[in-house]
Design a protein that fits this description.
With about 400 residues, the chain is of the alpha+beta class. The protein is built from twelve helices and 19 strands. The protein is about 30% helix and about 25% strand.
Amino acid sequence: MSAILSSTAFASSQGTSPTLEAKSWAMLDARSGQIIAEHNADEQLPPASLTKMMTLYLAFEAVKEGRLDINERIKISKKAWKIGGSTMFLEPRLNPTVNELLHGIATLSGNDACIAIAEHMDGSEESFADRMNEKAKALGMQHSHFSNATGFPAESHYSSAMDMSILGVAIWRDYPEQYKLFGERDYTFDGHTQPNRNRLLWSFPDADGIKTGHTKEAGYCLVGSAEKNNTRFVTAVFGTNSDRARARESKKLLGYGFRNFITVRPTEREIRRQVEVFEGVKNSIWLKPTAPIWVTVPQNSKAKLSFRLRYDAPLKAPIREGQKLGTIEAVIGGDNAKAEVMRSFPMVATQSIKQASWISRQWDGLRLWISDSSNELLDDVTGEPGTAE
């Protein structure tokens, strides 16, 4: 559930990332979790309507878990009806469906829809805010605190560019079908058609989200996302001075990302490794990663991406299936001290191995003494060729 981020020193191979006319920004590769660019990314700032991404995340979660029915009709309170700012023009007589409210938040940034969802799910906006903070913690959003579902300014209501990037990735990853709502350019409710305020949907090829925000305190903010050829970036830009500026600065980030980086997924054959086992009924074991691996690499890198295994030798039985036995590193620049580590991943046992008999263990002890293999091994293993274009 929590985010896994990897900060990689791309500047050495790709030059300096763009400087934006904004207070803070961040860009993540949505698949690898690697940080591509950042500036003041952990600064706690008012997020304005970017807040509604968390409101939607919780609603999407409730729909998936069966706690919320998209066809269910929701009663509109006086608070929701009277709230100002951007709305989808809800009235108590309308009783919209959950599905209509989700569209109204994602596409129209409806404050009224946020209040309606919050009150329906938790009885009050205040209780819903508690749920928002619990989820933020679970997702690894370390610099966020929510006091309402809309993003209206409050002293205890803040987030950061990094946290909103993490949230954007989480929505895309966890709720891919609902994520499509963010790509809608307009929405009609009760005869009123309003446009999506996200200019990226018109001005940047392959952009499909995510959310805009604006208050006097926050300035103009935007969490954007686009995908090309299995490479997806999520950006967050805080504190620009206009609607056009937030789109322009977001385009700078996305353009930099797609010009300079690609996301690759090595095969299991490239990753798996076989290592020696002592004092067990078997003398070797295959290791594998715990999940599919994605790595962001520079487009112009001449060296191939390679993988090297680190583990503490000797490995001794008993070993249980799924036990973490080492780490594999994705590196650029070959297997040497100058190689640049892009990411690292845990490697686990593919099977269980029981301890051998006393005599066999004594024999293995002799072998260990002879080979003096008690130091950490670096890629001294049997495996498939560890390269990827």
